[in-house]
Amino acid sequence: VQAVREPAQADQLLLLDASSDRLSSQQHAEIEAQRANTAITRRATVTSMEELLYAALPVLDHGFIRVIDYMGDDPAIVQAARVSYGAGTKQKRGDAGLINYLMRNRHTSPFEMCEIKLHVKLPIFVARQWVRHRAASLNEYSARYSILDREFYIPAPDALAKQATTNRQGRGEILEPEQAQRVLEMLRADAHQAYLRYEHLLGETATGAAVPDGIGLARELARMDLTLNVYTQWYWKVDLHNLLHFLKLRADPHAQYEIRAYANVLLQILKVWVPLAFEAFKQYRLDAYEISSKGLGVVRRLLAGGSVDAASSGMSAGEYRELMGVLGLSER
Ligand SMILES: Cc1cc2nc3c(=O)[nH]c(=O)nc-3n(C[C@H](O)[C@H](O)[C@H](O)COP(=O)(O)OP(=O)(O)OC[C@H]3O[C@@H](n4cnc5c(N)ncnc54)[C@H](O)[C@@H]3O)c2cc1C
Fold first, then answer.
1. In 10 A of CB 6, how many CB atoms?
2. Mean pLDDT throughout 154-158?
3. Which of 125, 131, 132 gets mutated to test ligand 1 (max ligand atoms within 8 A of its CB)?
């Protein structure tokens, strides 16, 4: 059984240039103007984040993430922690050690001292998941006020898979090429058909051209007829603590492929912005696993040379299977 591949995890962040059609010509011009400006500041800055500012980083087929602003850096986390622990911590631990300590012990408030503001372009069905993260500030493109662009997310063929049999919320076996082709044709045709209808209802196109025999229906009503793979855009501001919480949930293999594609780019931004916090997060949260007390009992029995199976573990079959997977003992 061939599984869906992981969303791209580039080591290098790719910046979109003026030839990219993910951005309108107006957006290209705005980005160029923003990137041409440099201001002198007394605030702490991160050189590689300054280089990243305003540029669009591609995600999925038409989406992007742009860093619009950020506040704080690794030293800001350390500085906040030292306010609570006092100067004594300086002798005891270096910055990396202190950040690791904070992460390991869930001392979260120093991470709230850093903030980031992003411009994100994403399909509406991904936005529905993203917006569940309430501890952030958001301004979305208004489809009551403006007309949504004719841009739909169409998955790559190898991201199309059947319903998983072991997990009701996931993808299983990848589709055969001919089947994938049929699905893609349906997705494209339906999205285009719905968008044509949207323009007809509006009586105008996104560029302001009149649609012959169009109805002139209110934008807030016409949008009802669109498909969920249409792209929306928003500004999203979040503090580092809540961004890490978002990433723990959305960069996880259980999260949907499409939101993980965004989470992977955010991880790369994190690495550039707060490299020490990023490493601590990977070590103690992202690549770590929380074991229940029953799970710990299983591990202790195994370490003592005893035998254990799902029935004697006291755990549910799913939880036991997950633990064995994490321990690399799936065959048990
Ligand atoms: C794999 C996956 C599958 C999911 N499936 C579903 C699903 O099927 N249906 C569905 O509805 N959702 C689903 N969700 C969404 C999930 O239940 C959360 O709503 C979402 O992940 C946001 O998490 P959060 O509330 O911790 O984050 P945030 O809203 O950002 O909140 C951060 C933290 O602030 C605190 N907080 C915020 N608001 C409150 C509040 N009102 N009361 C108390 N504490 C608060 C909590 O400690 C919370 O953890 C899924 C999420 C994932 C990752």
1. 11
2. 93
3. 132
